[in-house]
Amino acid sequence: MPQTPVSSDSAQDSQDTITREINQLHADYAERRAAGAPAEDEVALDFAPYRSSILRHPTKDPRHVDPELIELTSPAFGHTDVGPIESDLTISERGEALGERMILEGRLLDADGRPVSGQLIEVWQANAAGRYIHKRDQHPAPLDPNFTGTGRCITDSEGRYRFITIKPGPYPWKNHMNAWRPAHIHFSVFGNAFTQRLVTQMYFPGDPLFPLDPIYNSIVDQDARDRLVAEYDHELSSPEWALGYRWNIVLNGSKSTWFEAEGDEA
């Protein structure tokens, strides 16, 4: 009988420990709200159950820098115009990607619900087995030679975007023993310059890993967390071909989408 691989991860905290900490922090927030405190719909940068955030979160005041200088040295994704084929992650020169095919659509909106057109949106994700094509990802799950996990598109005049991709699998990470990330897709919205870039994560409805994940739960407000979860859209699904999901990105205002602090990539 095959043996279950034993992680060499040095993290010793159990899932029960992490979950208790998450529940306590959420309960503390609920008490503050009941006492009249305002909603806290931004990520907690030093959320204790997310162990590395204690070391990685900003501890000093931000500094003003020359944005043009940053743009000369910052990375860029692609050096040509965005083509229509780049929004379909399921095809390659060698064949189709493996996994549950899905259609993902949504709109990029401002605080007043107005569409934001002509914006570059990029996505990256793990494959159906929960593995990235990256040398640092040593998760013992199969790589898919026909799936790079990256795509991009430009929003149209109504702020719409559309990707065809594979539903990603959950994967282990080293926050604590037996830690698994819920299935998610990373989104990047560039704005008009690299220094305006915003990054977030989209999740899938009904994921059983939600209550166990300290990254997802570092947003202590339930309504704000819910805005990161896509909706299944049966009308968007294509018969005998792909399931449909819909997810809007709101850039600002009281219903804005949560965006990551620089450096958060799990």
Polypeptide structure, described:
This protein is of the alpha+beta class and about 270 residues long. It has a single domain, classed as Aromatic compound dioxygenase (Protocatechuate 3,4-Dioxygenase, subunit A, Sandwich). It has helices spanning about 15-35, 55, 65-75, 215, 220-225, and strands at about 100-110, 120-125, 150-155, 160-165, 170-175, 180, 185-190, 200-205, 230, 245, 250. Strand 5 and strand 6 (about 180) form a beta hairpin. The radius of gyration is 19 Å and the shape is globular. It starts with 14 loop residues before the first helix and ends in a 16-residue tail after the last strand.
Taking the alpha carbons of the first and last residues, their distance comes to: 32 Å
* Strand proportion: 15-25%
In which range does the helix fraction lie?
Answer: 10-25%
Q: Please state the second-level CATH architecture.
A: Sandwich
Short recap of the structure:
By secondary structure, this protein is of the alpha+beta class.
Give descriptors for this structure.
alpha+beta; Protocatechuate 3,4-Dioxygenase, subunit A; 5 helices; 11 strands; globular; disordered N terminus
Topology at a glance:
Layout: H1 15-34, H2 53-56, H3 67-73, E1 101-109, E2 120-125, E3 150-154, E4 160-166, E5 171-173, E6 179-181, E7 184-189, E8 198-203, H4 214-217, H5 222-226, E9 231-232, E10 243-246, E11 249-250
Parallel strand pairs: 1-10, 1-11
Antiparallel strand pairs: 1-4, 2-3, 2-7, 5-6, 7-8, 9-10
